[in-house]
């Protein structure tokens, strides 16, 4: 079916608006921009853009959907205490129904706020999440989170489970689902386990994703135990020869940035989670200057406490200006790129991230006719980074399929999801 959207404003990768429309057919954009109208095109379906802005969908490059019911469960704690006192004990209580409800809630929250693709690391219910993602119409990179406690017998069990998941789901759902090898972090995975995980990623030809250098204490402890900073250690182990995406990278030096840039290693910047846990702020402008590939992520609701990429853009755009006392640090257009095409690139969805002919039809429509976006004039990039709210998102398409229409989720039952989430979360009390 050939769908024509006209009377819209199409946002470029640089955050510039062009009056025109979008034509999509078979999940692919065939034309976009000026000159697209009902008068000049043939079509099977027509959608009036109503003067709305059409943006690439947001890409959330780090999260843990299975823990969404733990939103607000532990506050005002540093990372290690938060993990040991809140997360790990509560995760022991989670059953399949609770994890399933958490996953549904995460998908609905992300989709409603304009996220079209996401990465998720978790050790529970990962096959269920793949099924749900497939049914929702969203894109995702999924993997089994692995902790290297318990000796080599436990290691192999986790690696085998990861391999089975990759074999079952990589490039599934018409390419919307990709997979990755996901050891939790250097402080929970011994070097020998990291090497085995890396070998699996090489064997399967998939992304390698791990947390790294999130806190000063983590880096101090790692130096004391191994004699090296976590980034130096992963580099020594040969990990960065792979396709690698690090979450956080808060406490790194210029030398580490050069290693990441030289090896093409990506970094998922999670400013809300890092700030809330008191972990610090990753030096993203410095990384970008060094040539490191960067994108944005929310982390989990247990540490954020939302999955709202619009909020994440705003914080990222502001926090570095304050940190560096430089109003030019991390311009709005760069933040927009990190939230869209930058994330698509790091997750391997290379045919998404911009609205142009030949790309897959992953985009959102936002209503600019609100007080907080007025006057809009020619200030789209700034408004997207600093003024946009997730409630402005009205429609979402992935691979040409409309997943949210006029603020109503099409593929997910929002009322049922909220009811079930409350019901399952009560079991934690």
Automatic annotation (TrEMBL):
One GO MF annotation is:
5'-methylthioadenosine deaminase activity
- The protein's Enzyme Commission number: 3.5.4.28, 3.5.4.31
Return the cofactor note field: Binds 1 zinc ion per subunit.
- The record lists Zn(2+) as bound by 62, 64, 211, 299
Q: Which reaction does it catalyse?
A: S-methyl-5'-thioadenosine + H2O + H(+) = S-methyl-5'-thioinosine + NH4(+); S-adenosyl-L-homocysteine + H2O + H(+) = S-inosyl-L-homocysteine + NH4(+)
Residues engaged in binding substrate: 91, 144, 184, 214, 299
- List the protein's name: 5-methylthioadenosine/S-adenosylhomocysteine deaminase
Species annotation: Alkalicoccus urumqiensis
Instruction: Tell me the gene name.
Output: mtaD
């Amino acid at each position: 079916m050939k769908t024509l959207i006209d009377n819209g404003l199409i946002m470029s990768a640089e955050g510039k608006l062009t009056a025109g429309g979008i034509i999509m057919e078979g999940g692919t954009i065939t034309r976009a921009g000026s000159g697209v109208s009902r008068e000049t095109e043939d079509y099977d379906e027509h959608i009036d853009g109503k003067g709305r802005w059409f943006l690439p969908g947001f890409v959330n490059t780090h999260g843990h959907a299975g823990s969404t019911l733990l939103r607000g469960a532990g506050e005002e704690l540093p990372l290690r205490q938060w993990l040991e006192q809140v997360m790990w004990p509560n995760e022991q209580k989670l059953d399949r129904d609770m994890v399933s409800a958490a996953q549904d809630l995460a998908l609905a929250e992300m989709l409603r706020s304009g996220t079209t693709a996401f990465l998720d690391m978790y050790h529970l219910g990962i096959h269920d999440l793949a099924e749900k993602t497939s049914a929702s119409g969203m894109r995702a990179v999924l993997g089994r989170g692995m902790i290297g406690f318990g000796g080599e017998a436990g290691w192999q069990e986790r690696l085998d489970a990861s391999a089975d998941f990759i074999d079952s789901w990589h490039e599934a759902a018409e390419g919307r689902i990709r997979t990755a090898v996901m050891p939790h972090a250097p402080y929970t995975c011994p070097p020998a386990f990291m090497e085995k995980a890396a070998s699996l990623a090489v064997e399967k030809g998939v992304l390698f994703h791990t947390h790294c250098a999130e806190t000063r204490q983590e880096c101090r402890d790692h130096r004391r135990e191994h004699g090296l900073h976590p980034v130096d250690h992963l580099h020594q182990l040969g990990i960065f020869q792979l396709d690698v995406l690090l979450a956080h990278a808060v406490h790194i030096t210029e030398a580490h940035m050069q290693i990441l840039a030289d090896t093409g290693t990506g970094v998922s910047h999670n400013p809300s989670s890092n700030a809330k846990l008191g972990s610090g702020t990753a030096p993203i402008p410095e990384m970008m200057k060094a040539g490191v590939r960067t994108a944005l992520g929310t982390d989990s609701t247990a540490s954020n406490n939302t999955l709202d990429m619009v909020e994440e853009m705003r914080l990222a755009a502001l926090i570095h200006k304050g940190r560096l006392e430089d109003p030019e640090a991390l311009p709005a257009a760069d933040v927009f790129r990190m939230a869209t095409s930058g994330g698509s690139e790091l997750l391997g969805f290379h045919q998404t991230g911009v609205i142009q002919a030949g790309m897959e039809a992953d985009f959102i429509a936002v209503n600019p006719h609100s007080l907080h976006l007025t006057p809009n004039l020619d200030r789209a990039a700034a408004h997207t980074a600093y003024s946009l709210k997730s409630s402005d998102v009205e429609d979402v398409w992935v691979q040409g399929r409309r997943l949210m229409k006029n603020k109503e989720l099409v593929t997910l039952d929002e009322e049922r999801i909220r009811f079930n989430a409350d019901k399952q979360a009560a079991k934690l009390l």
